User: Which sequence fits this backbone?
């Protein structure tokens, strides 16, 4: 069987560096199986010729990059021939290890995490959210505190990472950092993603998470009942900012829109179809299309805040954390003894206003803009009233059935 062997260089345009350059990556393909590696070179995107597989121009930087790439290609080809003579069959991973084991041994954990986070930060507003960057940045900060405490060093080579490191960092997050189990799950999942990306780039990273169980802890989701919604909507609120937060929260309860989708809502997303008004928008988090009808209360709120220009934001909301702070005061004033955040509005929509009224879980999933119905099942708790109604219907059917039993 004839072996196919190819070396290709390309720009990683989705992870631009701080200076605007794109990292140059390499790819080895043998018999259809491929592996990537980092060249540690970079260029402005406009200086790369995809067809020629090299940099364009005659500047000293361009000439240096092309010389390095030629030398790298030559080294890989030589390693390939050597391995083929020694072992016969060669895999891309074997070849990558033979060629780059020495050159990437100095790559460090925090160094890679910082570069990863810088790339995420540059993509905020494009295809990443600010909260995603904060999540990875939190992992970086905790690593900066953990490594000196545990190893007496400010950083570790990626090749030295082992299961002991993972177990130690896991314990540090729970005990010294005092983070809750679900927060730790989020941080470790983020770290797993970073290390997987580093391994795919050809760096010597062991698979620390193989067989390592990461589980989120079930948390009871708070939501408002019909009676609590009535108390909140009838509450006299003097402060204009508090009134805005209350009205937006109620709007979210009756539409299922998340905080960020509500903040981005414009009049161009509102349409009249027949006699009813509908919101047609795209979820920022998932990119899913959402269509939801406006009932009387949300429509009245919409008219109250309707801007002069269609391109203006309908609801001039402050930050999510400030809204949650306001909601604490509002719940207290309304006599609602629950910890309610803005996100609880989506739970209220899924539970009190849809599922409890007999709407199918499939329809609720569509209204919430979920890609997976299992996500909707987390939101849609079974309320006592809904359970009572279901059991009453079941009781009538069983009573009728037992009434026909003659014994």
Assistant:
């Amino acid at each position: 069987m004839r072996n196919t062997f190819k070396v290709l260089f390309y720009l990683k345009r989705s992870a631009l560096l701080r200076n605007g350059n794109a990292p140059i990556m390499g790819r080895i393909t043998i018999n259809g199986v491929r592996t990537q590696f980092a060249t540690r070179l970079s260029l402005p995107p406009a200086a790369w010729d995809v067809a020629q597989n090299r940099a364009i121009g005659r500047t000293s930087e361009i000439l240096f990059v092309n010389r390095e790439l030629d030398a790298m290609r030559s080294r890989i080809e030589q390693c390939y021939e050597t391995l083929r003579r020694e072992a016969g069959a060669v895999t891309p991973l074997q070849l990558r290890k033979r060629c780059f084991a020495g050159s990437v041994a100095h790559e460090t954990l925090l160094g890679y995490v910082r570069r990863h986070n810088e790339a995420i930060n540059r993509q905020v507003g494009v295809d990443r959210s600010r909260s995603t960057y904060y999540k990875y940045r939190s992992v970086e900060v905790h690593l900066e505190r953990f490594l000196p405490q545990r190893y007496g060093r400010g950083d570790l080579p990626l090749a030295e990472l082992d299961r002991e490191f993972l177990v130690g960092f896991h314990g540090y997050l729970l005990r010294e950092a005092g983070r809750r189990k679900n927060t730790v799950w989020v941080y470790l999942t983020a770290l797993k993603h970073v290390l997987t990306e580093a391994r795919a780039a050809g760096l010597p990273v062991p698979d620390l998470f193989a067989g390592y169980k990461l589980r989120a802890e079930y948390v009871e989701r708070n939501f408002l009942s019909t009676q609590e919604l009535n108390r909140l909507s009838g509450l006299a609120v003097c402060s204009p900012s508090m009134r805005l937060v209350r009205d937006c929260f109620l709007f979210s309860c009756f539409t299922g829109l998340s905080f960020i989708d509500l903040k981005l809502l414009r009049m161009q997303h509102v349409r009249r179809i027949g006699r009813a008004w509908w919101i047609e928008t795209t979820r920022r988090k998932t990119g899913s299309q959402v269509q939801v009808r406006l009932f009387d209360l949300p429509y009245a709120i919409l008219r109250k805040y309707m801007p002069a220009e269609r391109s203006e934001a309908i609801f001039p909301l402050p930050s999510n954390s400030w809204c949650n702070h306001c909601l604490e005061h509002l719940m207290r004033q309304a006599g609602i003894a629950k910890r309610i955040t803005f996100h609880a509005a989506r739970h209220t929509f899924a539970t009190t206003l849809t599922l409890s009224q007999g709407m199918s879980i499939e329809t609720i999933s569509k209204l919430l803009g979920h890609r997976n119905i299992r996500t909707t099942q987390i939101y849609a708790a079974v309320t006592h009233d809904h359970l009572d109604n279901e059991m009453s219907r079941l009781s009538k059917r069983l009573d009728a059935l037992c009434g026909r039993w003659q014994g």
